[in-house]
Specification:
Aspartate Aminotransferase, domain 2, alpha/beta, 7-stranded mixed β-sheet, binds pyridoxal-5'-phosphate, 2 domains, 13 strands
Length: 407
């Protein structure tokens, strides 16, 4: 056995233990796509999906992807430098217009879009200011930038969503330029960034703001273009990054900004230049979802909001703690690993998937079930899931079994 086997064995101790006890909750195998699927032959409604508008399995989306397979196959066998198609460029043009930016660039994943953007823009003249609950793509982009010899930016964290803390970081920074990195909606907590105040602080300190709106795209703003639209901040966020892996039904990253900034990243980002081009069937699927958003975005977003408001009202009336959530992402706080795993297993037994989020993904004592309400859930799906949550919440002591706690 080499040291890597020894290391792997040691580090897998927790996974092994969970498997032996039959409570390992991850990598469950879906037998079909969609919010309504099966696991080991059993019907399941997925409440941890990011298919926020329920469009991923729409017949028109699949049809567009099928047609693109006939014309372009599933891959282009190279990176965008030598494998760009008319479909990529046309979608970039349309996305820029829809989001309200000069230019868009498609990456193969949202993760790569953020990593590439940070590494392209950060150098020794730059302080990177990050929210301390940042997504892995922001952290990894930052750590990669910090590790590039001769370019190392200063890296500073500010307290989650604290404008005061951000102000302090920007005021005391050591480098001339500053790049502030935040998310539109924080994916584990479901809370929105205090973007209006953050925009003001950035302006006061001549800092450039980058927003990762992976979870706000398709869910916030009247047309669904995200938090910038929701808060009427058009033109005030220099760089927006988003993804096709949630509302847009597939996989892929989107970078939006001025023509020059986007073209700079396009010629600089190694995660763009040295990774294969987004397959055209995926481009076609996203493009079909964009057609739907252009035609019906406001009605679809309103539908999602109505369902989310209904679920939130019921969950709170039952006495569940939803943490800081103010969106359709509603973590059901169980605050204990065993309770979280038991809730997950009991719900799954009754056909409801709510993935447990435990340490180290969240701090000890902040364990929760990931609950995302989507437009693709029917009222019956939601009612059934909430009834089960209430039943097991009481059974496992997550909520009291007497009177509800109103918030
Ligand atoms: C906030 C945030 N940013 C970026 C990403 C990465 O997106 P993708 O799945 O396209 O790589 C995710 C997905 O988990 C996310 O939650």
């Amino acid at each position: 056995m080499s040291w890597i086997d020894v290391k792997a064995h040691e580090e897998l101790a927790r996974v092994r233990e969970a498997r032996e006890m039959g409570v390992y909750p991850y990598f469950r195998e879906f037998e079909t796509g969609g919010l309504h699927t099966t696991i080991a032959g059993k019907p399941i409604v997925n409440f941890s999906s990011n298919d926020y508008l329920g469009l991923t399995n729409h017949a028109k989306v699949k049809e567009a992807a099928h047609e693109a397979v006939d014309r372009f196959a599933c891959g282009l066998s190279s990176s965008r430098v030598q494998a760009t198609t008319v479909a990529h460029v046309e979608l970039e043009r349309r996305l820029a217009k829809w989001f309200g930016y000069e230019k868009a660039l498609l990456f193969t994943t949202g993760y790569q879009a953020m990593v590439g953007t940070i590494v392209s823009l950060a150098d020794k003249d730059v302080t990177l200011a990050l929210d301390n609950l940042s997504h892995a793509c922001i952290l990894d982009g930052t750590f990669l930038a910090a590790g590039v010899p001769t370019r190392q930016p200063e890296v500073r964290f500010f307290n989650h969503n604290s404008v005061k803390s951000l102000d302090r970081v920007l005021r005391t920074r050591e480098r001339k330029n500053a790049l502030v990195l935040v998310e539109g909606i924080y994916s584990l907590d479901g809370d929105t960034a205090k973007l209006a105040e953050i925009v003001e602080v950035c302006a006061a300190h001549e800092a450039v703001l980058v927003v990762d709106d992976a979870h706000g795209t398709g869910t916030l703003g009247a047309r669904g273009t995200g938090l910038v639209e929701e808060l009427d901040l058009g033109g005030k966020v220099a760089v927006l990054v988003s993804t096709f892996s949630k509302t847009f039904g597939g996989i892929g990253g989107i970078l939006l900004g001025t023509t020059e900034v986007v073209e700079h990243v396009q010629h600089q980002a190694r995660s763009f230049l040295f990774s294969a081009s987004l397959p055209v069937p995926i481009v076609a699927a996203a493009s079909t979802i964009l057609d739907m958003l252009e035609a019906d975005g406001p009605a679809m977003v309103a539908d999602l909001r109505e369902k989310a408001a209904y679920a939130r009202g019921r969950l709170i009336a039952m006495g569940f703690d939803l943490g800081h959530s103010n969106t359709h992402i509603m973590p059901v706080m169980c605050k204990d690993e065993t309770k979280t795993l038991l809730m997950h297993l009991a719900l799954l037994e009754f056909g409801v998937l709510m993935v447990p989020i435990t340490y180290p993904a969240v701090k000890k004592g902040e364990e929760r079930l990931r609950v995302n309400i989507t437009r693709g859930h029917s009222r019956e799906d939601i009612d059934r899931a909430l009834d089960l949550l209430e039943k097991f919440g009481k059974q496992f002591g997550v909520i009291g079994d007497t009177h509800p706690v109103q918030k």
